[in-house]
TrEMBL record:
<feature type="transmembrane region" description="Helical">
    <location>
        <begin position="283"/>
        <end position="301"/>
    </location>
</feature>
<keyword id="KW-0812">Transmembrane</keyword>
<dbReference type="InterPro" id="IPR011303">
    <property type="entry name" value="RnfD_bac"/>
</dbReference>
<keyword id="KW-0597">Phosphoprotein</keyword>
<keyword id="KW-1278">Translocase</keyword>
<feature type="transmembrane region" description="Helical">
    <location>
        <begin position="203"/>
        <end position="222"/>
    </location>
</feature>
<keyword id="KW-0288">FMN</keyword>
<keyword id="KW-0472">Membrane</keyword>
<keyword id="KW-1003">Cell membrane</keyword>
<dbReference type="InterPro" id="IPR004338">
    <property type="entry name" value="NqrB/RnfD"/>
</dbReference>
<dbReference type="GO" id="GO:0055085">
    <property type="term" value="P:transmembrane transport"/>
</dbReference>
<feature type="modified residue" description="FMN phosphoryl threonine">
    <location>
        <position position="152"/>
    </location>
</feature>
<comment type="function">
    <text>Part of a membrane-bound complex that couples electron transfer with translocation of ions across the membrane.</text>
</comment>
<keyword id="KW-0285">Flavoprotein</keyword>
<keyword id="KW-0249">Electron transport</keyword>
<feature type="transmembrane region" description="Helical">
    <location>
        <begin position="20"/>
        <end position="37"/>
    </location>
</feature>
<feature type="transmembrane region" description="Helical">
    <location>
        <begin position="94"/>
        <end position="112"/>
    </location>
</feature>
Length: 316
């Protein structure tokens, strides 16, 4: 029998970064379309500016700064830009959004070496930078369709006001909030597409949302003013963060055990900020905090190499 010797890798796949990112864009499309329907032309401008701006900037950095002459756009910049746009209030100006794009692509991504080497989710870094730099625009919320300035469900909960939004309104997407967090239904539909395409693991979202539900149930049992579990699940940016940002394969752990630990950590930090912090929302900060722990989580949950014997405890 004739044996052929070839260099690794021996396992090949037809998948590519571009195909994976295209699936993410498809999954986010329903929420993006609903944002335009709900908030109008301004939402469309922000989405186009962020998505196109991020893709162009990513191409410029790779081709002319990192001098990758063979680099072809892989749509990772577009995903970062679209996620950033969906994390913005419609009150944000287009030029402010571009500043967030620059921070996300250049500082949070390119400085660390580009795609696959960044420690923190680029879109969230851009969002937090904008929140610190332009707090008025980033925390001015408008109601869908009538564009009246109002408070979000989580802001109302933080202030101890009456619950003016029903769970149905929060689930379907007729509440004020960032462009992509208003409709839990459409986010779930998009995430279903990623699961169907086997692009993400369900363990992080389940652990993340499950932790929020458990903690909310405990504190709501002590004091109803803390809000019900479903109110915390549907009333803010939890669904967008848990389904599309915490699951980022670059900035999340590699093992299933690591996914669970990461998700639980995200959920715990989110609820600590929501219940006891100064901000009504804590999703962005929670994910970024847990991003920093990913190397440590990977180190502690690294599976045993196949064929390698378990360590035997010494009796000495």
């Amino acid at each position: 029998m004739k044996l052929s010797m070839m260099a690794a890798p021996h396992l090949r796949s037809e998948d590519s970064v571009r195909k994976i990112m295209l699936d993410v864009l498809i999954a986010l499309a329903p929420a993006a379309v609903w944002a335009v329907v709900s908030f109008g032309l301004k939402a469309l401008v922000l989405i186009v500016v962020c998505t196109a701006g991020a893709e162009v900037l990513d191409f410029f950095v790779m081709r002319f700064i990192r001098r990758k002459k063979n680099f072809k756009p892989d749509l990772s910049g577009s995903v970062t830009g679209l996620l950033l746009a969906l994390n913005l209030s419609v009150a944000v100006e287009w030029w402010q959004a571009l500043i967030g794009v620059f921070v996300a692509i250049v500082i949070a991504k390119a400085v660390f070496g580009g795609l696959g080497k960044n420690f923190f989710n680029p879109a969230l870094v851009g969002r937090v930078f904008l929140l610190i730099s332009f707090p008025v625009q980033m925390t001015t919320w408008l109601s869908p369709f009538d564009m009246q300035t109002t408070a979000t469900p989580m802001a109302i909960l933080k202030q101890g006001g009456p619950r003016v939004f029903s769970l149905q309104e929060m689930f379907l997407g007729t509440i004020p909030g960032s462009l992509g967090e208003v409709s839990a239904l459409l986010l779930l539909l998009g995430f279903g597409w990623l699961l169907f395409r086997k692009r993400v693991s369900p363990f992080i979202p389940v652990a993340y949302i499950g932790t929020v539900v458990i903690m909310a149930a405990i504190f709501n049992g002590v004091n109803p003013g803390f809000g019900s579990p479903l109110y915390h699940v549907f009333g803010g940016g939890l669904m967008l963060g848990a389904l599309f940002m915490a699951t980022d394969m670059v900035t999340s752990p590699m093992s299933i055990k690591g996914h669970v630990i990461f998700g639980v950590g995200c959920g715990a930090v989110t609820m600590i900020i929501r219940l006891f912090g100064g901000y009504p929302e804590g999703v962005s900060f929670a994910i970024l905090v847990m991003n920093a722990f990913v190397p440590l989580i990977d180190m502690g949950t690294k599976p045993r190499i196949f064929g390698k014997p378990k360590k035997v405890k010494s009796n000495a």
